[in-house]
Amino acid sequence: MxxxxxxxxxLLDRVLVEKLQPKKKTAGGVLLPESAISKLNExxxxxxxxxSRTQDGKTVPPSCREGDHVLLPEFGGxxxxxxxxxxxxxxxxxxxxxxx
Length: 100
What we know:
Belongs to the GroES chaperonin family. This protein has one helix at 2-7, and strands at 14-19, 42-48, 52-53, 59-60, 69-71, 78-82, 85-91, 97-99.
């Protein structure tokens, strides 16, 4: 994925993410039913723009960095297909939380 992040650089306060698939198996190998799989919209940050600008022209850095795991809203973002992978572009202020 690092190659994609270098070719596609978001502008301003945009954040490019790849949504993570929920686990369908436990660590012991037991398959989970669809109802037990969490519906969290978790994603990994692939690339980040330089940040938004204030009226003075100063740059405000984004709140997340490349490699962070973030929580996304249920709807929103712009879907982009790059090299057969589905990536999403969000504004920095649309991201709900950073997961640690």
